Each structure stands twice: as C-alpha cells, then as structure tokens.
C-alpha cells in the first residue's frame, strides 16, 4: 500500500503520522530559516536538555508511567525498554513501515518518529491498551478469525490503524477507507486482503 496518511479523522496534535509527512515537506522549506537562526541561538547560548536522562511522565494505556529518558530517545525505544510494551515493533525506524504505529491522543502516530520527551502530556495508546489475550479487541479477534497475519511483525501496527478506522467510521466502514487507514503500513508477507476483510468484519460487529 502507498505510504500516505489515513484520511480517517483529523489529527489533533503535531505528533501524528499526517503531521509527520506534512512536516517533512515543510522542513525542507524551513531549512534556510533554521540555518539563519543558528547564529542567533549560538550567541544567546544553548538551551538544551541532556545528554543525560531527564525525568518524564508518560500517560500510556491510561496509566501514568514515570521514567527517566535521554532527550534523544524515541518514544518507541522508551515504550519497548524500559516500559516493556513490545507491541509496537522497530522495523524501519524511520517512519515508513508502520510497524511501530500507536495512537497519540487517539490518532495514529509512528512511535519511532516521536521523541519520548515530546510525548509527555499526551495520551498514548499501544496495541496492549486495546485488548489482551483474555479480552481481545474486536479488531484483534477479527485478525485471528480472518487469518490476517503471517509472520506477525507488521500486525500490531495494522491492528492500530484498522482499530482507528473502525472507531472513526463504525459500521459504515468501507473497503476504500480501510485501505486508506492502512496506507502507512507495509506487510512483507502480503496479508493485505485478509487485513481488509478483518477490519470490515470488525466494523460490522460494532467496533
Ligand atoms: S519502525 Fe516506525 S515506521 Fe517503521
Ligand atoms: S505478516 Fe509478516 S510482515 Fe506482515
């Protein structure tokens, strides 16, 4: 699927996948401005955190987690270690594959492309926050029922994108809307047709 952001629901923050893509274009145009500001910043003296760890409180899956992080660490790194939420997967680590997809304030975001310090004050949801083996989310159930995974490495990201589509469109979810929601997710095993079937089935069950 092409690498573009879901049309389902407008992002509210600057950390979402759509904001990331818009930001990539804007960054090129802003480069000259940043370069011209560098001199002024050097004169005013550096205002940086780190390089050592700084205390951060992250709200993850409804719980506040206090954790010391280095300012350079991504949210993905901090979620997986030390918070031990290994659902979001590190694959490309550069905002192209979608395996690390989480929600920030209810909108899909690439955890590999958000700094942990930026995420403080935002509601973070990982695939672990959707359901668990004893009480699966309807999208997780549908992925099992429709055999929507093979190696499974991309699956948490697809589940987060599909669950967002189901949440956004409900029973009216269409094939095109699922494709659009998953446009930022890649699957090397080619599970796309079953992912679409699973998302549509989940939506019919009431999301
Ligand atoms: S690991 Fe984040 S988009 Fe690929
Ligand atoms: S199931 Fe293997 S990469 Fe998607």
Describe this protein's structure.
This protein has 207 residues and is of the alpha+beta class. The protein has two domains: 17-26 and 52-126, Ubiquitin-like (UB roll); 138-204, [2Fe-2S]-binding domain (DNA polymerase, domain 1, Orthogonal Bundle), CATH 1.10.150.120. 41% of the residues lie in helices and 12% in strands. It is built from eight helices and five strands. It has helices at 17-44, 75-80, 116-119, 127-130, 138-145, 155-169, 175-181, 192-204, and strands at residues 54-60, 63-69, 101-104, 107-110, 123-125. The protein has a five-stranded mixed β-sheet with strand order 2-1-5-3-4. The longest helix is centred in the N-terminal third of the chain and has 28 residues, at 17-44. It is elongated and about 50 Å long. The chain starts with 16 loop residues before the first helix and ends with a helix. Mean pLDDT is 86; it is low at 1-13 and 27-41. The site of one FE2/S2 (inorganic) cluster has 12 residues, from loops.
